[in-house]
Amino acid sequence: MDPLIFKIILVLVMFLVSLGIAAYSTYAERKVAAFLQDRIGPDRAGPFGLLQPIADGVKMFLKEEIIPNVSDKWLFILGPSMFMVTALMTSAIIPWGMPLEIGGTKFNLQVADINIGVLYIMGVLSLGVYGIMIGGWASNNKYALLGAIRASSQMISYELAMGMSIISILLISNGSLSLNAIVDGQKEWHWNILYQPVGFIIFIICAFAEANRTPFDLPESESELIGGYHTEYSSMKLGLFLFAEYINMFISSAMIASLYFGGYNFPGLEYLSTVLPNNVVSFISVGALFTKIFFFIFVFMWVRWTIPRFRYDQLMRLGWQVLLPLSIINMLVTGGILTIFN
Amino acid sequence: MQLTNRSKVVVHKEMNWVEKLYLPAIFSGMFITIKHLFKKKATLRYPEVTREFAPVYRGMHVLKRDEEGRENCTACGLCAVSCPAEAITMDAAERKKGEENLYREEKYAAKYEINMLRCIFCGLCEEACPKDAIYLTDRIVPSDYSRGGFVFGKDVLVEPVDQRIDISKRKKDYSIVHNN
């Protein structure tokens, strides 16, 4: 098979998987929320309410589309589309599993193995805030603007600490920015979490902030800003905003799993690859990665239904005065230890 | 004064460095929420499962028939008089020849209406009834889109001959035994 065809198929599959997981994340969120609050959650549409995301989607499509008169029409449309596109772009560089073998040639389960993979993700993720910013600004509504400003300043503040904690990862993975190399360096149980526990905590806190999840959901805090940056949005444009957030959550979980929990690696994978056929091992590794991803999506929801929202000054203090210095110290200590032992 | 042994003294002390990390508090909070994941749910899947009513529950009224399927009500009007919400109205009529299998006594209610929006479900009509005709059951008054739909006539209130409504829970021991 032509590698190009394989890549196109993989892109399509990842596109559909991202959308599917995002759709069912909304369902899972409601279920998890309900169970954590001693309720049952949606159970009317289909068995266990499994068709609920479809019903929600249909509802979103059928709602009246309202574009405010005073808004900048083109930017108003550009905002949610940009947020969605950037959210979907990130899944391109994550290595989803061991290489597949089709007709004697090996195909990497990764759309693009670019050597600056981590940088690419950081870049695309920070592009996502343009979607929020443009959407909030074009609405011509003070609440939307406030939400958008909060989102962008929050993004900038936490991206720094996130970048610093990623640098510590790069130090212990021989300086390669390629996600493939980083995951490859965590064979069996040599997961980065064991070498970088502090870095992991910083990273996961920043991931929560980047994904606008509680306790960092100030950009859309409905109790003070109505709906934040998507106050003026309705119908599927609102759906795109909400949907893209769940895709971001999925990608963040995939990043956490790849950077700190060995990606598709798990203890015993080496042994399995000697006894089982190549493609079976490949599928098992994909399953391992997705198990980790689903666990972290659950953690995202678990935290959301446990912790209340930060106050804005607390958010800024945590980002600039705690996480950033801590991540710099973490990086220096990692570098120092590496210099001593090498 | 201490009313319970659960009260806590609030102290405004400086937090120590472990508390300032917040992480232990967050983890203990997450532990509490995860415990709720496995707790028994408070929700009942309503239309399939219904919560058991108390034996004294007063719901939608029923106009009873006797064992031979004849309406008990004689339109005496005691229920309407006793009703504090004035929800009951009725028109009396005389039983014609050949209607003996429909109405138990010579007088019957040609029209019998309860306005369910006025009714406060106090059960006084049931207590006032000398003929064992009206009872409050454990059925729930169905919802409707218009006010007019809540004025229940005989078509809704009188129990069908083939689907008797069970009122044994509410039937009093001192109810009058008729010998007609």
Would you mind describing this structure in some detail?
Helices cover 68% and strands 2% of the residues of chain A. Chain A is mainly α and 342 residues long. Chain A has one domain. The radius of gyration of chain B is 27 Å and the shape is elongated. Chain B is built from five helices and five strands. The interface between A and B is medium-sized, with 13 and 15 residues.
Outline of the structure:
The complex is a heterodimer of chains A (342) and B (180). Chain A has helices spanning 3-36, 52-62, 73-89, 117-138, 142-172, 179-184, 192-195, 197-210, 222-225, 235-260, 269-275, 278-304, 312-341; strands at 100-102, 105-107. Chain A is an all-alpha fold and 342 residues long.
Taking the sheet with the most strands of chain B, its summary is: 3 strands, antiparallel
Amount of beta strand of chain A: under 5%
Q: What is the architecture of the domain at 61-157 in chain B at the second tier of CATH?
A: 2-Layer Sandwich
Termini separation of chain A comes to 44 Å
Low-confidence stretches of chain A: none
Helix content of chain A: 55-70%
Major sheet: arrangement of strands of chain A: 1-2
Content of β-strand of chain B: 5-15%
Rg on CA atoms of chain B, Å: 27 Å
Structural class category of chain A: mainly alpha
* Helix content bin of chain B: 10-25%
Whole-number mean pLDDT of chain A:
85
Terminal Cα span of chain B: 67 Å
Poorly predicted regions of chain B: none
The topology string of helices and strands of chain B comes to HHEHEEHEEH
